[in-house]
Design brief:
mainly alpha, two-stranded antiparallel sheet, 28 helices, 75% helix, 1% strand
Length: 589
Amino acid sequence: MSPTNTDVVVDDGRAKWSDLWKKEDYWAIWLGFILLIAAYVLFVANAPADIADKVAAQNAVMKAESEKAPFRTIEYYKAQDAKKKINSRGTDAAKTVSWLLARPAGWKNNPLDSFYVPKEAADAANAAAKPKADAAKATLDGVFAEAKAAQAEAVAAGFNDDALNAAAEAKIAAWRQAITDNGKAPKTDKKALNLFPSLLTVMVSGMLLFGVGMAAMGQNIVKFAVGFVGVFVVAVLAFMMGSQSTMRYYGVGSEAWAIIIGMFIANTVGTPKWIKPALQTEYYIKTGLVLLGAEVLFDKIVAIGIPGIFVAWVVTPTVLICTFIFGQKILKMPSKTLNITISADMSVCGTSAAIATAAACRAKKEELTLAIGLSLVFTAIMMIAMPAFIKAVGMPEVLGGAWIGGTVDATGAVAAAGAFIGEKAMYVAATIKMIQNVLIGVTAFGVAVYWTTKVEPEEQGINRGQVGPISRGQTGLIEIWNRFPKFVLGFLTASIVASLISGGLGDISNPLVSDGLVRGMSSPLRSWCFALAFTSIGLGTNFRELAHYFKGGKPVILYVCGQSFNLLLTFLMAWVMFYKVFPEITAKI
């Protein structure tokens, strides 16, 4: 076939310029980019002009305190806390976006509290919480007074008494821990709440946003819009269940509830036919993964240094490959696509890696659902069990955070589990998970290459009665390109562009990008996209379709054995890199 002006590549017409507006992967990229550009305009381009001065002022205090004392003083930490509160979410436009993207709030006994709380009820809740909140504050004030007194003694000695310095440092550390503990105390700042207008706005906006792509891809936009209402309502219910206090404590988040509620509907009354046109699992989650790219910032990766890179980029591929081999050689997994999807899900970064890997090897929908289900169950267990174990054995925060970051699957669960231990642990855990997220694209490419050059040629050879694999010449770069999930290019591009922007902003990168663009818009939008995707998975899954995959319990055994190996290897690598090879980097964290 000779090339024409409509061909992107010459491959019997499979890839054309029209793919750019008719294929799901590309629409995920375009929608993700549109949303990220809007976030940049709101939170970076139109940020308050005085942010740089505010950051500089706190940096000056921190620098002065570092030069004055041999330990981090109270004033240093206060400046650090003040600096963390500086962000670009204070403008009217940013506040409007925050209101629009608000998800159902936390609740304990009454589900309606997740959506609507009148002022009288909010005031009553604040009054009821005040005694315990005051008691917690009094405890915090007492610990702070002790830290202040100990620091004053060290100052009086001119910081020349090592014993007084050590005592002050210990008391200040106790004060910082008390601040963390106080964060779990009852709050007296509950405000009136009415999410129904914003939820309606998000639903209509999502319907239009995704609907444009559906129309361009030749789908019936009216049927999609009608079905989208049903998917959105179930996603909102999932957010509501995930925000319940007990569910939050045990780590059963909205992703798990979206699948649970969806599967319950699908396997009882059955998913209504009018909803099915909107069950666009990959469309939603691929858009969310492009948004996730903006959260993977290279300057944050560099900040934690080589130890974090070793933990994420050496352990992860090792675990992935070993788990896959274990599944094939020892467990004799009947499906290679299920094996690699579970292996990537468990070793890389959970559901995001599973989606990319499943696309690269063309795994069945049921296999992807199974991998994601296993990931969500074990993530909920690990985000509770690991912090408890780390605290019980007295493991250092940096080591505990690195261990969590390299093993717990979901990014949100990693941050939550790290926060259970402390501020340092949360920072290290979240950063290592960010470094690990870079491997989504690498994994997808590697699987695409391996499947097209090794797995499928051998399977085709067997099907044709050949003893060995068919000629490698029957596969090539074109097939790898066709197989490679294109949305990963959007993920990588978003990461590179966001990293360049962040790196160019210097000291104001965190308030404008991490605390502005990401937390203000891209992260909430990603959460909505993921909720729609997991809801679609649940509504589109029948238990009977999954039953035969559990025969012999091999998927569970694969996940447990792989994760056990991951836990052991990650811990060993983190200990060696952070405490034996690069202790000077650990000391600066």
